[in-house]
Design a protein that fits this description.
Aldehyde Dehydrogenase, Chain A, domain 2; six-stranded mixed beta sheet; 502 residues; alpha/beta; 17 helices; globular; seven-stranded mixed beta sheet
Length: 502
């Protein structure tokens, strides 16, 4: 589709007509909606593989048919460049298409081994839907991070409530209008709203909650889920470190670092928050980072259409406070400019910020990158392991031994060598954090497992049993039991034939 890029106003106007704007969503409305969805699930229709397939096909078709509408909404919410937006749209289509190719195979019960002692029993693993799922999605990738979890939930036969972020209103409105047109509205509901709506939803009993967002809200979600012992997947974030050594090509590395860090104006949970490098490497790297910023976004990035905007005015002010703090202001070596009204923040580099400064204590979620000098790899690993486990550890090095040390000696959701973000495009890899960066994982097969209950099934015919199975116990029975559990089948045979004393 090659129509001119829209400013989003038409898309916003059209979706508001079909959204829930003006409707009251309170505890009573939440309870009524949940009851209807549970009734749908109990009907058994969503367990049907044909039903699941149709939902996935419709979701992929929606991404194709409304590419321009989605692009316009993302432009309105985040001011993203066309290439970045296209990647998000294609990501939705790819997730649905990949699931369509594989979910029937994954859904089949599969036989597992049965020990001789349990013969003629038969053992298998059966996958069944969890039931009623709540997906709470964030504002930074409002379509991909809403619809990719939805793909997994539908492929496994669940009914779903999707709560998109109110901070991306154009995207939220568009989702609320489009999904009922393409999906079974008795099985999938979109609920728009702010904190009060979220509170009403979290007060209900769910069979699974899938949350993507910040750690503080993640704690609230987990606390609410604990009241009903509801399982949760929490996709959070944290301060991701990047180590670079003198074996790396600094020009190539700088380009990958800046293009990754400035994706969506740094509002991505997978990008680096700070770089760890020796003093010599840092001194040689910084000019390459500056050159990459100018090459990609020009001498005045505020005029560049490929640099997204910060989500809202308050987040611009938050970033301003981080950079202008007394402990940080003197550390700016590039950028630092911003404009609240246009929601602009320049790609910014900081050097050797005090570790106790506010910017080093929180996830930045903006185009600000700190370079911290260390004595070498040992100190870098110590700095990483002394802090909460991040979502990603990144290493830029041509030395395999260096990469292996970070892989084995640090803990994170992912370890990525010589790249940024791209691992998330591989649907064969799990996506998820560890510790404070999250729990659980999804994408591809991992999404199917995320929204399924893995049930053990064991069947044995009603034939005659050995008398020793039942009371009263005997010395011979004890010896047979030990032989069975130890796999001592020759001794077992002798006992059964009466050829071994007991």
């Amino acid at each position: 589709m090659d129509r001119p890029y829209q400013d989003g106003s038409a898309a916003v106007a059209c979706v508001e007509e079909g959204g829930r704007k003006g409707e009251t969503f309170d505890e009573a409305a939440a309870e009524e909606m949940v009851a209807k969805l549970r009734s749908k699930f109990r009907s058994g229709e969503t367990r049907n593989l044909a039903w699941r397939e149709q939902q996935l096909r419709n979701l992929a078709r929606m991404a194709e048919e409304h590419e321009d509408d989605i692009m316009a909404a993302l432009k309105a919410d985040l001011g993203r460049g066309r290439m970045e937006v296209l990647i998000e749209v294609l990501g939705v289509w790819k997730a649905a298409s990949h699931m369509l190719k594989n979910f029937k195979k994954w859904a089949k019960p599969h036989k597992v081994g049965t020990p001789l002692s349990l013969k003629p029993g038969r053992s298998e693993v059966v996958y069944e839907p969890l039931g009623l799922v709540l997906i709470i999605s964030p504002w930074n990738f409002p379509f991909l991070l809403s619809l990719e979890p939805l793909v997994g939930a539908l492929a496994t036969g669940n009914v779903v409530v999707l709560k998109p972020s109110e901070h991306a209103p154009a995207s939220s409105h568009l989702l609320s209008r489009l999904l009922p047109l393409y999906l079974d509205s008795q099985a999938v509901q979109v609920v728009e709203g702010g904190p009060e709506t979220g509170k009403a939803l979290l007060g209900r009993r769910w069979d699974k909650i899938f949350f993507t967002g910040g750690t503080a809200l993640g704690r609230i979600v987990m606390e609410a889920a604990s009241r009903h012992l509801t399982p949760v997947t929490l996709e959070l974030g944290g301060k991701n470190p990047l180590f670079i050594d003198d074996s790396a090509d600094l020009e190539i590395s700088a380009k990958r670092i800046i293009s990754g860090k400035c994706t969506n104006a740094g509002q991505v949970c997978l990008v680096p928050d700070y770089i760890l490098a020796t003093k010599d490497v840092a001194a040689r790297l910084i000019p390459h980072l500056k050159a990459a910023i100018e090459q990609f976004y020009g001498t005045d990035p505020s005029r560049c259409a490929d640099l997204a905007r910060i989500i809202n005015h308050s987040h611009v002010r938050r970033l301003q406070h981080l950079v202008e703090h007394a402990a940080t202001a003197a550390c700016v070596v590039h950028g630092g400019e911003s404009d609240v009204e246009s929601k602009y923040f320049a790609p910014t580099l900081l050097l050797n910020v005090p570790w106790d400064a506010p910017i080093m204590q929180t996830e930045v979620f903006g185009p600000i990158l700190t370079i911290q000098t260390v004595s070498g790899i040992d100190e870098a690993i110590d700095m990483i392991t002394a802090r909460p486990k991040p979502l990603v550890v990144m290493v830029f090095s041509s030395r395999e031994a260096v990469r292996q040390r970070f892989l084995k000696e640090t803990s994170s959701g992912a370890m990525v060598a010589n790249e940024i973000i791209l691992q998330a495009a591989n649907l064969e890899l799990p996506f998820g954090g560890v510790g404070e960066s999250g729990m659980g994982r999804y994408k591809g097969r991992f999404s199917f497992d995320c929204f399924s209950h893995c049930k053990a099934a064991f069947t044995k015919p009603l034939g005659r049993d050995l008398a020793l199975r039942f009371p009263p116990s005997t010395r011979r029975g004890e010896m047979i039991l030990k032989a069975v559990f130890r796999g001592a089948y020759f001794s077992l045979l002798l006992l059964l034939l009466g050829l071994k004393k007991h």
